[in-house]
Write a structure and sequence with these properties.
By secondary structure, this protein is of the alpha+beta class. It has two domains: 9-194 and 327-334, Ribosomal Protein S5, domain 2 (2-Layer Sandwich), CATH 3.30.230.10; 199-325, GHMP kinase, C-terminal domain (Alpha-Beta Plaits, 2-Layer Sandwich), CATH 3.30.70.890. Helices cover 37% and strands 30% of the residues. It has helices spanning 83-92, 114-129, 135-150, 156-163, 211-224, 226-248, 251-267, 273-282, 307-316; strands at 7-14, 20-40, 51-66, 71-72, 75-76, 98-104, 166-170, 177-183, 186-192, 199-204, 288-292, 299-303, 320-325, 332-335. Strands 1, 2, 3, 4, 5, 6, 7, 8, 9 and 14 form a ten-stranded mixed beta sheet that branches. Strands 11-12-10-13 form a four-stranded antiparallel beta sheet. Helix 2 packs across helix 3, helix 2 crosses helix 4 (156-163) and helix 8 runs antiparallel to helix 9. The longest helix is centred in the C-terminal third of the chain and has 23 residues, at 226-248. The two termini are 19 Å apart. The structure holds (3R)-3-hydroxy-3-methyl-5-(phosphonooxy)pentanoic acid. Residues 38, 42-43, 45-46, 111, 113, 153-154, 156-157, 209, 211, 215, 293-294 line the site of (3R)-3-hydroxy-3-methyl-5-(phosphonooxy)pentanoic acid.
Length: 336
């Protein structure tokens, strides 16, 4: 577990009656959490199939200290711009007002988990300020934040951001079980899955990925089509093959499975012209490539050992490339 500490500055000052009074002047605490990429199983995970996600070496951090009023990045807490922080403060915190500063290397609405990293970081800070910090509790709080703000989510992104490295989310308990998260009748079991060293190139289409809209689209297809349900089951089988390929560090097999997963996601209707153009550009120099996350926009990922080449090809097609490596560092909290 991550070590953390918190310094509470206690200030003494003489009051008019010459009696010393105590106040907590500042609580400084910083948390940071990684971006994530779903390697296999997005959308299918909503219907009880497994999914695999990996943490990436781009991070979002937030710093808090006590204040007279709640403030975020120098402005007031906005209903529209700060929906995640607002939900967290309203529902998971009843202490004094906090001033929050955010810093991010993760492009927003890109399918790379910026909201999961934000939810994990604020959840970790609020737990720490209350004196407890267990990854499983932070993962549960972070999931609740995302679920409530987005009106639905699986715990894949938030658990990956909290744990770091790789995770397998499934509806059956497997080996290396980390924690389980329930919502309604559903329970997701989250497992550690050690990923091999991998370089990925993320290609952001520049078009935001609206998770809720894509999930609704797949849901309606799933309800009316046996073919959609069969496709989703096929994705589930492929994810379990992915577990073996990752454990073996077999890049060729991982790449082939990514390609197959991309085709099955296209059948479900969440591919787009822009995503396909980036996938096509990356493929000649990659083991495999696929859209990642909800699709419809957002990002694709390519597994490659020629990251510079792939990045330049994605750029030439109008994508915004990010060369990333899988990171073993999950959510961290530090007092300052
Ligand atoms: O758009 P993202 O990166 O948050 O991924 C969504 C993944 C889905 O499987 C489509 C939905 C979910 O909550 O698991």
């Amino acid at each position: 577990m991550t070590d953390y500490y918190c310094i509470v500055v206690i200030v003494l000052w003489p009051n008019p009656n010459n009696i010393y009074a105590y106040t907590v002047q500042a609580v400084m605490m910083e948390a940071s959490s990684p971006a994530k990429a779903i390697l296999f199983g997005e959308h299918a995970v909503v219907y009880g199939e497994p999914a695999i996600a990996v943490a990436l070496d781009r991070r979002l951090s937030i710093r808090v200290r006590s204040s007279d009023t709640c403030r975020v990045d120098g402005g007031s807490l906005s209903m529209r711009r700060h929906r995640y922080l607002r939900w967290a403060l309203n529902n998971l915190w009843n202490g004094e007002p906090l001033e929050i500063r955010t810093r991010s290397q993760i492009p927003g609405a890109s399918g790379l988990g910026s909201s999961a990293a934000l939810s994990s970081s604020i959840a970790a800070i609020l737990r720490s300020l209350r004196g407890e910090w267990k990854p499983r509790d932070v993962a549960t709080d972070a999931f609740e934040i995302e679920y409530n703000v987005q009106g639905g989510a699986s715990p894949t992104d938030t658990s990956c951001s909290v744990h770091g490295g790789g995770i397998l989310v499934s509806f059956r308990k497997e080996s290396e079980h980390l924690w389980s998260i329930s919502k309604g009748e559903r329970t997701w079991h989250v497992h550690n899955l050690d990923p091999p060293e991998m370089t990925l190139v993320v290609g952001f289409t520049g078009r935001p990925s609206l998770t809720g809209r894509q999930v609704a689209k797949v849901r309606s297809f799933h309800e009316r089509s046996g073919f959609a349900r069969e496709t989703i089951r096929e994705i589930g089988d492929l994810v379990m093959e992915g577990v073996d390929a990752l454990k073996d560090g077999d890049m060729v097999r991982i790449g082939a499975l990514m390609n197959r997963n991309h085709s099955l996601l296209s059948i479900l209707g969440v591919n787009s012209k822009e995503l396909q153009s980036l996938v096509d550009a990356a493929l000649p120099y990659s083991y495999g490539a696929k859209l990642t996350g909800a699709g419809g926009g957002g990002s694709m990922i390519a597994l490659t050992d020629k990251p510079e080449k792939v990045a330049s090809l994605l750029k030439a097609r109008g994508g915004k490339p990010y060369i990333v490596r899988v990171s073993m560092v999950g959510c961290e909290v530090h007092g300052t």
